[in-house]
Design brief:
Blueprint: H1 9-31, H2 50-55
Length: 232
């Protein structure tokens, strides 16, 4: 008597492929489905570059807000005028050539940050800490450096007319040929700073510490010296 052939082919194939297909679907739906890539809320992005924004992935350097970590970010590639970087960690960040008009940098961490050639007139850096930061040729007119710490920073060739450096620390900083006319250094620490060729016409150095400071060729006409006398 002929026996019925076992129908193992299709059922066996279904038994093997179903769990594999389920696994593949779970993996692709979990990791590759549209919208699965995390994105930052629109209001946290601050003028990201089109190339980065088009990729759909978060750009940590495009985050704008207080206490953000922007260490070593090339912030000169973004439109950051008016941004709020209060308490931000911007150590080693590149601001060179950037327009920082209206930008807030109070109490920011700016060690080794590069501000060369940047536009910073009137910017508030109150209480900021920026050892070894570079401000070569930057526009720092009327900028607020009060109570800040910029030891070993480089301000060579910068425009710091009428800047407020009250009670700030600028030990070993260089101000070669810097315009410091009308600047306020009241109680500032300028010990061992190099102010060679700088213009301090009408500046206020009352109670400032200028121990070991270099003043070769420095213009001090009308400046108030640490002891309160007016330099002729």
């Amino acid at each position: 008597m002929p026996t019925k052939k076992a129908e193992t082919g299709p059922k066996f194939f279904w038994f093997i492929t179903f769990p594999i297909g389920a696994i593949v679907y779970w993996v692709t739906s979990t990791f590759s489905a549209p919208g699965s890539v995390p994105t930052l809320p629109p209001d946290t992005l601050y003028s990201p570059s089109p190339i980065v924004a088009a990729s759909g992935t978060p750009d940590p350097c495009a985050v704008q807000g207080q206490s953000s970590n922007l260490e070593r970010c090339p912030l000169n590639l973004y439109k950051i005028a008016g941004a709020d970087y209060t308490l931000c960690i911007c150590n080693g960040a590149d601001f060179s050539g950037a327009d920082l008009t209206g930008t807030k940098l109070e109490t920011a961490m700016l060690a080794e940050a590069n501000f060369e050639g940047s536009k910073m007139a009137g910017v508030n850096l109150y209480g900021a800490v920026g050892g070894y930061a570079k401000f070569l040729g930057a526009n720092l007119a009327r900028t607020n450096f009060a109570s800040s710490i910029f030891n070993f920073a480089i301000f060579d060739g910068a425009n710091m007319g009428n800047a407020d450096l009250t009670a700030g620390s600028f030990m070993f900083a260089t101000f070669l040929k810097t315009d410091l006319s009308g600047a306020n250094f009241l109680r500032a620490n300028l010990s061992y700073a190099d102010l060679s060729g700088a213009n301090l016409t009408g500046a206020n150095l009352r109670y400032a510490d200028i121990t070991g400071a270099k003043l070769d060729g420095t213009v001090l006409t009308g400046a108030t010296m640490p002891d309160g006398t007016i330099h002729e």
